[in-house]
Amino acid sequence: MRDFVYCAPTRVVFGRDTEKQVGQLLKDFGAKRVLLQYGGGSVKRSGLYDTVVACVKAAGIELFEMGGVQPNPRLSFVREAIELCRKESIDFLLAIGGGSAIDSTKATAVGVPYEGDVWDFYAGKQQPKTALPLGVVLTFPAAGSEGSNSSVITNVEAGGIKRGLGCDLTRPAFAIYNPELTYTLPPYQTAAGASDIMAHTMERYFTNEPDVDFSDRLCESLLKTIIRQAPVCLKDPTNYEARAEMMWASTVAHNDFLSNFRLGDWASHQLSHELSGAYDSTHGAALAVIFPAWMKYVYKHDVKRFCRFAVNVMGVEPDFFHEEETALKGIAALENFYRSIGMPVTLKELGVPDTQLRELAEKVKRNPDGTVGQFVKLNTEDCLAIYELAR
Amino acid sequence: MRDFVYCAPTRVVFGRDTEKQVGQLLKDFGAKRVLLQYGGGSVKRSGLYDTVVACVKAAGIELFEMGGVQPNPRLSFVREAIELCRKESIDFLLAIGGGSAIDSTKATAVGVPYEGDVWDFYAGKQQPKTALPLGVVLTFPAAGSEGSNSSVITNVEAGGIKRGLGCDLTRPAFAIYNPELTYTLPPYQTAAGASDIMAHTMERYFTNEPDVDFSDRLCESLLKTIIRQAPVCLKDPTNYEARAEMMWASTVAHNDFLSNFRLGDWASHQLSHELSGAYDSTHGAALAVIFPAWMKYVYKHDVKRFCRFAVNVMGVEPDFFHEEETALKGIAALENFYRSIGMPVTLKELGVPDTQLRELAEKVKRNPDGTVGQFVKLNTEDCLAIYELAR
Questions:
Q1: Which pTM value belongs to this model?
Q2: Which residue from B minimizes the CA distance to A2?
Q3: At residue B23, does pLDDT exceed 90?
C-alpha cells in the first residue's frame, strides 16, 4: 500500500445541453482571449462547433481557432499552436473533441510559457513549471484526458515517436459532458474508446501492491460498467444512459482516482504506443491487441490476481482447485469481449506487418534500466515475445 | 439519471508522517495568519498537537488556536471563533480532528466574511457567497467532512437543533491523512465511524433514479470495504492497511463522487440528527439504530433495490423467486453487522427514552411540504413509525 497525493480539481458539468454553458464557464475562470483546438469536420457537421463559437462570443470572449488536430496528435501542430498563442496573447485554451484535441491543447498549455521546445517535456528532459489553463467540451470518451494530468504527443519528424507527459498543471479547469454528443460516434470508435477506458483501468489494476482491496473493487466496478455498456452503445447508439456511463467512466478510469494506494503497470500502453507511432493504429484498437497478449505472457507472475480479475470482472466461475485454468479463462473471456465489440485482437487484423516486430520491441524502453512496466519489468526479448503472441 | 456538476478539488496528502507537511501546505496555499480548531485532549496526549504547532510555526506562520470543540459542534463556539478571526485578521483556518473540528471550522469559514449571524446559513435563510479557505489534519474517519461540501452545527440555545449546510466554498483546500493517527481511536468510535461512512453511502445508494448501475457498483464497493475493514480495525487497531482503507473510504463516501447521476434520500440522517441534537447521541451510533428501522419501513417501495443491496453488499444468496424475503435478509444482515461491531441497534441501547418519540418525530420536517427524505417522502406519522420500529 503506497502513500499518495491526489488532487483532481476539474469542474465536471454533465448533462444534456451543457455545451451551451461554455461561454459562462470561460468567463467564470477569467478567460479573455481563447484558442480553440479541434479535429476533423465532425464537430462542424454536427453543429457543435457553431454552438460553442456562438456561446463563447456571446460571453464577450475573443476567440481564435486551429482545426485539424489529427488522431495521435502531432508535435508540429502543437508548435504552431504555441506560436499563435504567443502572437495573440492567448490566456485560456479550449478543446472540443476527445484525447487528440485535448492532448494537443495540453501540450500547447505547457509550451506557451516555456522558453525551450515543448518536446523537452515529452522527451523527459524537463518538467513544466507553469501552464495556461484549459477547458474541454468532450465528444469522445476514451482517453480520459478531460480529467487526467496526462497527454501524449507524436513526433512524426523523429520517426513516429509517441511519448506521454504526466503533469498536474495540465488537468483541465473544467470539462463539459453531453452524452448526446457521442451518439454519432462510429461503432469502431465507440469500441476503441471502450478498450481504451478498460486499458486505463487494467494498467492500474495489475499491481504488486498487497492490501489494496478498496481500489481493486473500484477498478472492477468500472470494468464491469464498460463490459455492460459498450455493447449497449453499439446496439443502440442513442441510449443516453449507456453513453453517459461510458463518458463518466472515461474520466474516472484515468484521473488517478483508481491509482490511490497503487503503482500501475503501463507496459501495454507503451507496447501499443509503438504501434500507433509507427503505423498510426487507433490507440484503443492497439490496446485490444496488446492487452490479452501481455496477460498471457505475465499471468504466472501473480496467478491469484488474474483469478480475481477472471471472477470479479469477467464473470468466470471461481475454481480454487484450478487457479491457472481460472486465470486463463479470464484472459480468454476478455479477448472474446474485444472480438464481440468489433475490436481486433491480432496484429494482423490491426494491419501491422510481422516483419518489424523486433524493430518495434527495441524501441519499448521506458524504465531507467531499459525495461518497461512495473507489475513485471519487461526487457526487449519479453516485448518481442508479447508482440509474437499478438501476431 | 440526473445531470450533475461535480468538483472535489481538495488536495489529498496520504501516508505516514504526512502531518509534518502541514506547515509547507499552509505556505503553498498562501496562509499567513491561521486559526487552529481542535477538540478534546487526545490530540494533545498523542503529541499530534505539538507536531502540528511546531510545523506551522517553523513555516513562519502566525498561529492562533481554539481547543475544546465538542462532539455535535456548537453554534456558540463557532460564534466565538468568528469573533477571534475578525479580531486577529485570520486568513486561513485549520482543523485537527474529525467531523466536529472540521464542521466547526467550516462554519467559521463562512461566518467570518458574513455581516449577519452564521446560523442564517444553517437555518436555510442565506447561502454563503464567500468563505475563508481551510485545511484539515484528519484523526477520525467518519463524517467525511475532510472532502465534502457539508457541515452540521448544533444550536443548543434553541433547544438542541442540529442543522446542516451544503456549500462548495467549504470544501477543504487540503486534507492530511496519516492512518497511524487513528490507531488510538476507542473501539466504539471506530465502529461509529464505520456506521457513519456506511450511512453516507447508503443515503446515496437508495435512490429512485433508474439506470445508475456504475454508481450503484461504486457504492457497493465502498460498503463492502467497510464491512470488511471495520472488524479488522476493531480486532487489530494498528493494522495500517485497514485503517487506511477506512480513512480514504470516509472521504469517498461523502465528497459527492457517489452522488453523480443520483438523488439520495437523507431521511435517516435527519431522523438521527434529532436524536443527537436532543440526547447528544454519537452520530454514527444513532445512524446504526435508525437505518435498519428506516429500511424495514420503506423496503416495499423498491423491493428490487433492496434485493440488490442484500445480494451485492450483504452477501445474501440471490433468490429471484422470493424477492421480499431476500430484501429482508439483507436488512437483517446489516443489523447483525452493526451488532457485531458493537453498535446499538435500538433506541433503548442508545439511551433514548421512548416517551419522547412523537416530540422527536414532529421536528423531522425538512422538505418544503413538511416531509423528509427523497427515496420515500416521510410525513410525521411515518417518522414516528420508524422511531417506533427502532425502540
A1: 0.96
A2: B15
A3: yes
